[in-house]
Specification:
- The structure is a homodimer.
- The first copy, chain A, has 7 helices and 12 strands.
- By secondary structure, chain A is an alpha/beta fold.
- Chain A folds into 2 domains: about 5-70, Hypothetical PUA domain-like, domain 1 (Ribosomal Protein L25, Chain P, Beta Barrel); about 75-235, Alpha/beta knot.
- Chain A has a 6-stranded mixed beta sheet with strand order 1-4-5-6-3-2. Chain A has a 6-stranded parallel beta sheet with strand order 9-8-7-11-10-12, with helices on both faces.
- In chain A, a hairpin with a 3-residue loop joins strand 2 (about 10) and strand 3 (about 15-20).
- In chain A, helix 2 packs parallel to helix 7 (about 225-235).
- Chain A is elongated, with a radius of gyration of 20 Å.
- The two termini of chain A are about 30 Å apart.
- The interface of A and B includes residues 138, 225, 234 and 236 of A.
Chain lengths: ~240, ~240
Amino acid sequence: MNLLLLMPSDLLGADRALVRDPRQLKHLHEVHRAAQGDWLRIGVSNGLMGRGQLVRLEAEEAELVVTLDQPPPPKLPVTLLLALPRPKMLRRVLQTVASMGVSRLVLLNSQRVEKSFWQTPFLAPEAVQEQLLLGLEQACDTRLPEVQIEPRFKPFVEDRVPALVQDTLGLVAHPGNYPSCPWGLDLNQKITLAIGPEGGWIPYEVTKLQEVGLQPVQLGARILRVETAVAALLARLFSG
Amino acid sequence: MNLLLLMPSDLLGADRALVRDPRQLKHLHEVHRAAQGDWLRIGVSNGLMGRGQLVRLEAEEAELVVTLDQPPPPKLPVTLLLALPRPKMLRRVLQTVASMGVSRLVLLNSQRVEKSFWQTPFLAPEAVQEQLLLGLEQACDTRLPEVQIEPRFKPFVEDRVPALVQDTLGLVAHPGNYPSCPWGLDLNQKITLAIGPEGGWIPYEVTKLQEVGLQPVQLGARILRVETAVAALLARLFSG
């Protein structure tokens, strides 16, 4: 936790905040070993960042005097269409996506997504939000990515992706004889990027994504785990 | 497992192999649900890659007819000096490092590495090798990175790093008012790259690394987890 992310409801007036989230209090006590008088980097969910001084730290409550005067870092102008990863990977990928600054994430079905993955409790809105907040607290950001869950591939791709892709560079990462993934784009270039499941998209899915404007690109001979591929692709696209 | 990585001792003559590794057999049976006659992508540790056909698959043994005719993908010409991550992260980072193609990894001490991390059984040579093999089997590579364990920061940096850095571009990733990390290098550019622990290098460590030829570079405002930073930095450096 490199930033203590407060909810707007934690703010008491313009310069005071009260932390009551058990996870955050546990972290302050056990990891930060914080004490009264300590300064912490703070932010408000979907708002500004700044610094706060601990004026009271108890087991179930902490009070801070806060100054909020800095904008959060820019988001990446990316809509990421990601085949739903297995539950354990999902949690880490949500953190990765939030910490890298993705604007919008669509968790999508694919032939190679096991049906059981859709039953995981980690897809519940609170569980998703928890991982996203961890990612923001890691990266020092305050703005949550939008997350959308799409358990049906074909209607989503046919009916919704065309509007998403409009005015963006549409890319689908897929091994094969395709152009290399572009690199060194600037933050004005909006991207729609599709990343498949472990085992990859099936050819039908690549064709469908291509039909709605996503161009297949490859990343080289190495096949990366989803989480590694997400970080590597985003870092490459915006390496400029 | 996108590639079944055989040990040279698994080969019986030029075109036969016998798999007896319980982990690999379990994977063939339970994940691949392989059957006699199936073709698999295979490779030999530190050797060639190719294809193999399963001619016999039993609980404790599998026999393949193999053709080994392809070189493994090029390694990244990178020596990565990595502050020892916490044990759980260490295992994943070893996989990431192997799957991204790093040539050499040095696990190094730092002020912010907890002493207990050095006691983990995951640092035993067999445990390290297991994670590296998983990374190679993920990425379809056969060449293990060299791994070196250095529990003393100062003597290693003073006595050994100068020779490592020679004829390479030396970089230390560190947040702050530093030049941006370079990008788009080609595979002829050798790199020595130092990545700190969660919490970062302390200023003394940055100074010491700078004194032996590693130039501090930053990656932007976002602070990434070690595993994500490794993937993002390598993808950025060799994005060309």
